Amino acid sequence: MNAQAMLTAYKTIVLREIRRFTRIWPQTLLPPAVTMTLYFIIFGNLIGSRIGDMGGFDYMAFIVPGLIMMAVITSSYANVVSSFFSMKWQRSVEELLVSPVPNWIILAGYVTGGMARGLGIGLIVTVLSLAFTQLQIHNLPMVVVTVFLTSALFAVGGFINALLATKFDDVSIVPTFVLTPLTYLGGVFYSIDLLPDFWQGVSMVNPILYMVNGFRFGILGVSDVNPFVSLGMILVFIAVFSFIALKLLARGKGIRH
Amino acid sequence: MTNALEIEGLTKTYASGFEALKGIDLHVAQGDFFALLGPNGAGKSTTLGIVCSLVTKSAGKLRVFGYDIDTHLSDAKLHLGVVPQEFNFNQFEKVFDIVTIQAGYYGIPLKKAAVSAEKYLKKLGLWDKRNTPARMLSGGMKRRLMIARALVHEPKLLILDEPTAGVDIELRRSMWSFLEEMNRQGTTIILTTHYLEEAEALCRNIAIIDHGRIIRNTSKRELLQQLSLETFLLDAETVLDKAPKLDGFASRLGDEGVLEIDVEKGQSLNEVFIQLQRQGIKVVSMRTKANRLEELFIRMVEHNAAESELDTEATP
């Protein structure tokens, strides 16, 4: 397959993924918009007004970057895991397997599709947040790079989950029991300065803390961790996850007999 | 000329320990219409699954138009079109999208894919349904959709795993005509089928697989020549109330008064007509009973099963 053909195959996968999640927008785009609006109203406006400042900013401004990141993470992950697993379940993944598309193009196509949904949701949540607070971007390149890389990382994570999943339950286990707790404990709603030393140390092994803080640094200019360490961590995780995903694809894990 | 498909020493042992293929050798020439026959669980779908990369082989060599799947998998896949046994498309996507997306996976740009999709959807009578979600199609339409999808990138080798399963007779005949036309135009076709009448009508060469081994691989003509007995169906001008007694031939009345006569190898059909004429029976039409291959198939598989049993008993 030459480069032009590979590009066509890549575009085909990406466009099909975008068409899929926009066709079912009440299931994919609307729920996070509603949930995040509730977060803004309840945590930001109602409770936040009584909390006061956090990290030198009013509470609403502090949680907005974390909430945007949370929406990006969950949507990027959910898109890939649900789309690829349902392809496995319907056996339509065989359409890809019989074709000459290289594995890395399959992975890149699904990851881009997941990023399209994750970043689209991020944009929707960002626009919604403007109704509640003013966003002043401290470092635009940091915002863009962090959100893109985080979205890519969780899209790859979703792909691995889909390959390993054998039933629908397996698709929801990681988001419910791993992603959600890590996100809530990753400094979305608080600065880890508030925690005792021991729990601050524990928080430092949570990869989502680095992503939320890297993104918060880009918007507010404050972070619990060095933002460049955050970027480095994300890149390392992307490399490791991609390697695992490609290994599993090459072995045909969950897709070939 | 390079063979369309070459398989050497192919084995497959599943994780459960089940040995589905025990060293298969198979060559399919370019332009052939080839049938791979065998009872359920014989290894047909495993063999085709390995050719299509849906099943990983345990050992052996496999080349598609000379391209080794171990070293040139992408090139091998470009030449292949696959129609699986079970529906394997996204039920929520539209017919046209399913076909053009498949073309995209082969690197065909949308404009060109749309032309090819239109050509095959029209040929297969699905053009009117192009904007219908696949789940709304009838079983026969879904089968035709899978054929259109398999052909959209113009493969040189088309593999069909029981393409007419569950399809009514009229549609089956029209699919046969379509496949014959594709074959005439140069596409090599390999099919598995449980309808042996289908293999007899379409294929030039036949391999029979049983218990993971090829037990016969020859031309249809040679296979049928092994038959020592052929049954002819004769329609008499007047309805017969009982089968006439024919010297040297077994005869009986079949459905709707059709006269069935068994003619053994070496016997003359003329003799049948002479005897019938003597008895005042006028024959207005005649045909062979289309189950010749079925008879042979059953005999071979039963024979192989008996041999396997003997082998097993002989093993200490």
Kindly give the count of domains of chain A: 1
In total, the number of strands of chain B is 14
CATH topology of the largest domain in chain B: Rossmann fold
Largest interface: A-B, 28 and 32 residues
CATH superfamily of the largest domain in chain B: P-loop containing nucleotide triphosphate hydrolases
For the residues shown, what is the average pLDDT of chain A?
A: 89
Shape call of chain A: elongated
Instruction: Provide a count of the helices of chain A.
Output: 11
The amount of helix of chain A comes to over 70%
The helix-strand sequence of chain B is EEEHEEHEHHHEHEHEEHEEEHEH
Distance between the termini of chain A: 25 Å
Helices and strands in order, then pairings?
The complex is a heterodimer of chains A (257) and B (316).
Chain A: H1 3-23, H2 25-28, H3 30-51, E1 53-54, E2 57-58, H4 59-90, H5 93-97, H6 103-129, H7 140-164, H8 168-184, H9 197-203, H10 207-220, H11 227-251
Antiparallel strand pairs in A: 1-2
Helix pairs in contact in A: 1-6, 3-4, 3-6, 4-6, 4-7, 4-8, 4-10, 6-7, 7-10, 7-11, 10-11
Chain B: E1 5-13, E2 19-28, E3 33-37, H1 44-51, E4 59-64, E5 67-68, H2 73-78, E6 80-83, H3 95-105, H4 110-123, H5 139-151, E7 157-161, H6 169-184, E8 188-192, H7 196-202, E9 205-210, E10 213-219, H8 220-225, E11 229-236, E12 250-253, E13 259-264, H9 269-278, E14 283-288, H10 292-314
Parallel strand pairs in B: 3-8, 3-9, 6-7, 7-8
Antiparallel strand pairs in B: 1-2, 1-4, 4-5, 9-10, 11-13, 11-14, 12-13
